[in-house]
Amino acid sequence: MPLRFNNQGAYISVVNSDTQGEVYIHKTGLLIQKDNSSSFNLKSDTFVGYYKYADVETPTTSDIDDLIRTLVKWSDAGKDEGGDSLSASEKLLNIRANYKSSASPYINEVVTGGGSSAFAPSQKLFEMTTATTIGSRVVRQSKEYVPDAFASDVIVAAEAGLRQGDMPENVVARVGIFEDADDLTVNASTGGRGVFFEHDQNADTFSLVLRRNEGGSQVETKVDSASFNIDAFDGSGISGYTLDLTKTNLYVFKWDSAREVLRAGILTGESVSYCHEFGRSSNVSDALMGVPVRWEIEHTGDTAPTSTATMYQGKASVFYTDDPLVQVKALDTGTAPKTVFDAPVPLFSLRLKESSNRAKLIPQQVNIINVATNGVAKWELVLNATLTDASFTDVANSFAQFSSAETAAVDGTVIASGYIVSTGLEVVDLEKNGILLVSDVAGVPDVLTLRIVHVSGTVEALGSVHWKERE
User: Fold this and answer.
1) Which of 136, 176, 295, 467 lies at 20 to 30 Å from 407 by C-alpha?
2) pTM of this structure
């Protein structure tokens, strides 16, 4: 039973090379002990593991005492990190399943053909249901994208119930990290990538699909479970695990940057059992260049189904070992104030460049001042207002675009507001608000606008914005 021990941020993982099973042991409270000259154990509040030194493939050490010293060093380093990830020092993205409105701050949603989505309290999951119409479809995907950072190890874990009850034919349910080029209206020629598990009710197959963009076209490599190269999950494989699609499973995708391979599997008990591996020859890195976590169910047939079909969306987390690029930027409206009287006046707007629509902007602070001596105004931060005469220009060395030319900003969602008085400066701290500027399922970037509403007197306003951005 050859074993590989790995230092994984807040965890030590143990991989059985024969079965490809993997166990993650949290370093908090971890006790590492030598039993005798040939064996040792690892103990925590939730785990006990006994191992023979002769079975250890990695790390390479001179003797059992050297191995114990190495594991203790790993454990002490992990405690300083304070992380809680599967195998990484920082949690990049965490999606809650129990947000009780489809207007989740974490999720973009597309519903077509009469489908529906709603929180299911009894399941504590989100229920996605197709209608009895041709082409009915429900898509829910993370607003944040998994970064294009392949010098880093990345693990994605997404919870889903792919088959609920009796499902009609020609229904396909999917979960993974992927997008569909047909949804995109921005950068469509470069989109259509990812990897996902798929259950096809018509063929009654469970598959792993690698989706790539080749010359502007979306191309898929589909591997049915019978052809998985690690474990078919039919009870006869090395894990002994039999997949039950009617249950809610935690599906795991792991990018190994050192080996340039992608593994996919399922959390079984306290360990991950992998079923298939895509290697370098599959051009995996091309498939994973900035993709969202996504759940999808759709009717694919040419005739209307006789019944509805349901899948469940659960929680998801993304972990990584190296930080993506983070920059801090700021811009302002200059020295010429805008006069506000009858109609509300937008001071500026901020958004992602369309060419960088898989990045994200994180507003940190907005400053507003009324330079007039006798006026009061209300300020509003508005998401995705309808703008008139906006003129967005690229911010130098940035993923962002900025405009201060707009003459009107109507509708939109007000996400913060307050008041400014004569010659008063209002400093709005947004760092803890969790505001993100990302893109929707079609790839269209969010727009954040600072809008000023006249209350009384003379109002002449200036503004500035500070933000972080990351790929």
Assistant:
1) 467
2) 0.78
